[in-house]
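Supplementary notes for students who missed Thursday's class. We covered one full example, reproduced here. Read the sequence, then the structure, then the short commentary at the end.
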Amino acid sequence: MALKTTIITGATSGIGQETALALAAQGHALYLLVRNIPKGERLKKQIIGKTGNKEIYILRCDLADLQSVREAADELTEKLFAINTLINNAGGVFDERQLSKNGFEMTLATNHLGHFLLAHCLMPLLQKGQARIINVSSEAHKWGKPRFDDLQWEQFYSAFKAYGMSKLFNIYFTQLLAEKYANKGILSFSAHPGLVKTAFGATLKGFGKIMMLLARPLMITPEQGAETIIYLATAAKLEKHNGAYFIKKKVAKTSAIATDTESRNRLWAISEKLLSRYLIWPVINAN
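Structure (token representation):
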């Protein structure tokens, strides 16, 4: 096994791909969780060709399908003794309201619930590896509000508001991981990669498409977008920043609502309830 064992979701394009390339070059054994296996295998060949690191493995995992998440976590549990880094990078924004295979609104399912379940199921391995958990959030969290009375967006759906709420939830999740598992040796961080020029948001229509086109000249490259994630995965002495939100490799200020302890605790409890049939042991309470 290589020096570090790292799991990355959403690695077949954009920021995830650049993160995978950089960490492979540093000797990490990579387990890439992807929806499209042929695309993942092509990326594997590319990474091996560029870095010479043959410790690259592809597993199928659709974050919007909770059974798929469980199966991926079970496979990792069978294969590995410990995990050193978990990078929850996959995400999406959806122009129209959609439901996942499990009946959850797609933004919530893909950007929050899938990663919540994955981290939970891998927690024994993460503890053994004294792991870092990195959740890719966004400055979009600043227009997000926790709609606990309508998490499914049944009353009024807005692609940007649903996305903003999910990115706010990424920050809540990070803070609670830091709070609950710090004494287990786990560090957790959230990060805004920047406005990155990728295929993200390509399916948006109308106002959303116009906004993405107007923002395109201001966008940075995927390589630049991956820099903070790579930093959080590899930099030494980050313990004092456990639970923090980062931009450009530095601790950044979140929205005021992102510091709301009651809301983040409520999110954790609701997430446990929604995922109860897929959880595999009682959630460890470090309080």
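Commentary. The beta strands are 4-9, 28-34, 56-60, 85-88, 132-136, 187-192, 245-247, 250-251. Residues 212-217, 281-287 have pLDDT under 50 and may be disordered. If anything here is unclear, bring it to office hours.
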